[in-house]
Specification:
CATH architecture of the largest domain: Roll
Number of strands: 8
Largest sheet: 4 strands, mixed
Strand content: 25-35%
Structural class: alpha/beta
CATH class of the largest domain: Alpha Beta
Strand order of the largest sheet: 1-4-3-2
Distance between the termini: 27 Å
CATH topology of the largest domain: 2,3-Dihydroxybiphenyl 1,2-Dioxygenase, domain 1
Number of helices: 3
Helix content: 10-25%
CATH superfamily of the largest domain: 2,3-Dihydroxybiphenyl 1,2-Dioxygenase, domain 1
């Protein structure tokens, strides 16, 4: 069987606005856009291009009502710096019931979608991968 995930679809009232947040957060490019949907893909020629799934922002009439059932986990080189940068783009820290001693930070984008910023990998962990 040859089956591959092409995109992660994210419902929103304003596809262009939330795509702008993620475009700047990830450094990705818009590859398709109309009033009802925007597609973001990794930078052309990057190691992720054609490998990592696309983000597809779809216009829906209703707003977000409950905690996401699916979310992104982002792995930065510097967690504190990345959290601060994302907050500067419009994200905010939220509690979804996580313990105080967890190694990740839970944020939500300007549309209220939760995502996590994980700790940086150690030198030993990087050497294993």
């Amino acid at each position: 069987m040859t089956l591959r995930i092409q995109a992660l679809s994210i419902d929103t009232n304003d596809p262009s606005a939330i795509a702008t947040f993620w475009e700047h957060a990830l450094g990705w490019r818009r590859t398709d856009e109309d009033p009802d949907e925007v597609v973001l893909e990794p930078p052309a020629g990057s190691p992720e291009d054609g490998v990592v799934l696309d983000l597809l922002f779809l216009k829906v009439p209703e707003g977000k009502a409950v905690k996401n059932r699916l979310h992104l986990d982002l792995r930065p080189d510097d967690q504190a710096a990345e959290v601060a940068r994302l907050e500067g783009l419009g994200a905010r820290q939220v509690s979804i019931g996580q313990r105080a001693d967890v190694t990740w930070v839970v944020l939500e984008d300007p549309d209220g979608n939760e995502f996590c910023v994980l700790r940086a990998l150690s030198e030993a962990e990087l050497a294993e991968s």
